[in-house]
Amino acid sequence: MARDLVRLSDVAKAAGVSQGTASNVFSRPGLVRAEVRERVRETARQLGYAGPDPRGRLLRAGKSNAIGVATAEPLAYFFDDPFARELMRGISELCDARGAGLALVSARSEERLSWNIQSALVDGFVLLCIENGEKMIELTRERQLPFVALALGKPDDSISAIGVDDYAGAQMAARHLARLGHRRYGILALEFDDFSEGPVDAARIARATYSTSRDRARGYLEELALHGVSRESVPIYETRGTAESVARGLDHLLAGERPTAILCMSDRVAMLAIEELARRGLRVPADISIVGFDGVPEAARFTPHLTTVAQPIAEIGRRAVRAILDGDGEIHREVLPLELIVRQSSAAPTQS
Q: In 3D, which of 147, 146, 149 has the Cα closest to residue 164?
């Protein structure tokens, strides 16, 4: 008999016991006499039977007591990106407190997306980086499991979502720099579309796929306009959040008259920019002020300490898990507050 085809009934027959007794050996061993337990287990070892498939038990129970976190990014994103690490800290903290498991589900591959979503043994999904992820939402809905998207700005109000007001946060950052007296700006943006990079104009922003980048760009530019800074005077470069793309972005921003302040759409981009500026002999904030966005823990330890618009990243994760575990089937949409944290990377300009 092929080892991968051995069933519990085969073990019971070979051991000379009923299937119910064999089942109890694996699930409720205290109900079975010691000599019978040993005989059944030895028979199972000889036949290559490892025990009942836990998936069947979970399906019968109707609950797996686990949360799935699905992302369109490579799974390495959860370990490499400071925002994702802090988010997962919040998610895992509440899972631990509730005794729930955690599964990372990759939606990066279109070919594997359907299988990964359909086969995940979870009670619900936290959907991360889901903008332009309509297929992921569709498949999750087919599972008829609760899900929470960690982004707002989607027109579909039937999606449960928890996030922040990116437009208002960008206004905070731009207003801070304008009040310090800055007049020349540059923007290092996150992606407006999948796998894109380069200089950005107003039309590019308007047709952006990702609402996070679009809303932050609009917030920066519209706030600066209130302080007399025209949109046309602010160069924008769409990075991919890597050191190489940030360096190319700085090439673009520094090609003309040097800005005295740069607005960065993430703390990761801001920290990479500061490191690259130092390699070019430019000091932050003496030569150029930098303001990030996210409030990751690393920003407070960076040199210089990073001024940033902080969102409650871990709390977003905790609330997403709570919405799934305690969900009542209703749509849950929540906007959490942002805070401007002023640190060492921003100061009044030393040149007019």
A: 149
Percent helix, percent strand, percent coil in the chain, to nearest 5: 45, 15, 40
List domains and CATH numbers for the chain: 3-52 (1.10.260.40), 61-163 (3.40.50.2300), 166-312+337-341 (3.40.50.2300)
Question: Model confidence over 135-163: pLDDT tens digits?
Answer: 777 778 878 888 998 875 555 677 888 99
Kindly list the distances between the CA atom of residue 79 and the CA atoms of 67, 76, 88, 299, in Å, as whole numbers in the listed order.
18, 5, 9, 17
For residues 147 and 195, the answer to whether their CB atoms sit within 8 Å is no
pLDDT (tens digit, 9 = 90+) per residue, 274-298? 999 999 999 999 999 999 999 999 9
Beta-bridge partners for 69: 104, 126
Q: Scan for tokens 């003496």, then name that residue.
A: 286
DSSP H or E stretch at residue 334: strand 333-335
